[in-house]
Amino acid sequence: MKGIDFLTNKRGQKTAVLIDLKRHGRLWEDFYDSIVARKRAREPRESLDVVKDRLRRAGKLRG
After folding, report:
1. What is the pTM assigned to this prediction?
2. Which residues of the chain have pLDDT under 70?
3. Parallel, antiparallel, or unpaired: how do β-strands 14-19 and 4-8 relate?
4. What is the rounded distance in angstroms from the CA atom of residue 55 to the CA atom of residue 32?
């Protein structure tokens, strides 16, 4: 694939990838977003109501 090159070690195993961001910037963004989402999947969650209440008390949300 043009714009994507793999770096290999002495044994020929792929160890890294070089992506031409001008050509494949959107692909990189999707890849990065999926990594961030997987990392955050184990984080504690709050309900929307709890977040809204905290924002109202902080004066950052009306209503």
Report:
1. 0.55
2. none
3. antiparallel
4. 29
